[in-house]
Design a protein that fits this description.
19 helices; single chain; 15 strands; 507 residues; Nucleotidyltransferase, domain 5; four-stranded antiparallel β-sheet
Amino acid sequence: MLSMEFVAEIRRRHFVSGESISSIARSLKLSRPTVRKALKAEAEPNYQRQHQPTPKLGEFQAQLIDWLELDAKLPKRQRRTAQRLFECLQVEGYQGSYGPVQRFVLSWKQQAGHRPAMTPVFVPLAFPAGETCQFDWSHEVVVLGGVSQTIKVAHFRLTYSRQMFVAAYPRETQEMVLDAHVRAFAFFGGVPKRMVYDNLKTVVDAIFVGKERRFNRRFLTLANHYLFEPVACTPESGWEKGQVENQVGNIREWLFTPIAKFENFAALNDWLAIRCLELAGRRHPQQTTRTIAECFAEEQPLLKAVSAVFDGYVEKTLRVSSTCLIRVDHNRYSVPAEWANRVVSVRVTADRLRIVADSQIVAEHPRRLGRDQLICDPWHYLPVLEKKPGALRHGAPFQQWELPVSIRVVRDRVLKQDKGDRAFVELLLMARTLGDGGLDTLEVACDLTLQTGVVAAAVVLNEMRRLTETARPKALENIKLSMPTLQLEPMADCSRYDRLRSLRHEH
């Protein structure tokens, strides 16, 4: 606060002596705005009083101090704000306004060494087209298949055009992150130069000084495939990717309020992709004369074209149990019997599992997202049935097997016959030898057998052989051949035969 004498001196040095504002500011160690303000002042400034009376708060100050001292010992998240303290005082009988409480709390914290947090100040950012995309996760509540559940939503946002893309997943595992990038780049029709992230465990393995990071090797494989530069934010500095941070709140309001209801994740993600295109019709927040879609049309050609889709799997090495099963995420999946008690590689993606052995895919299953589920392919156990046909009746893989109606009818009748287990296994073995169309052939053979009224495994086998036997070539007499015709036909000469006979007698 400048005294009136100080103000008068500044005015005299400038208006009488002609000294410049900069010179006065340097000599008096003041800012130039302060000097300018003093030059405009002709009367003594009227400052707001520094101490305001608080008659209604007086008797409650001791209680307020006790609460502040108690809160100071708690973690920052658990401390009460001035507004919450004001509400607590009202419960105790305080009749005054909020202002005195707020000023008292601020004064107490300053005296206790608690400085109020500075209001964040930011620099406006401008991003070139095709350069940067920001990524983040959010938690949303949806109803899938009639069940309310919390899901994870992957958010992408191109910083120039503001074009967004979102995809829903059951959790934030690495294969989900990889799959989200594959979907996003397909949606954008290209890849930006840089991708900005939080320090996700699925992306960053270690945080060093400054911006230096050690990225996850599998994630770097994705980055090298699409040739983008991964950039990790400073910890607890969400403003470094503020666009996608704001998008999280907007998407929650626009797409998940009220609660979205779909049959499964596939239907939900199809709808989310359509809504992202529709929301691109909104006005661009900076280029207000254009829509987001128009800005994206300008940015999209500058994205790097996708030459090949990345196979976004995470590979694990597992040992197959004696029951031909492997365990992935609390669920069990079957493997062909010849790999029982051996080690295989399992490639896990967001929606599938592929079992690899000897550099070949030996089994594949849709991925299940629940717990304690058994996912079996009955064909994997056929070699076991060949040796133990009795397992057909109570084997879990065969109880869940959805066979065509005609095969089920034949199976039920054959199993009631003597040695019916082994007989039906022979039908399955025959179907396996026929390859991919074997089950269809077995279904037709069972239909034909049921029409005869005599249901037996031998009859079904006979029908399958008849259906698959190689067709015989047509008889030659039934084929009209175009034969060449002679212009001069030879004459029959019987005398030649007589001459040969006479020569024989002579010798």
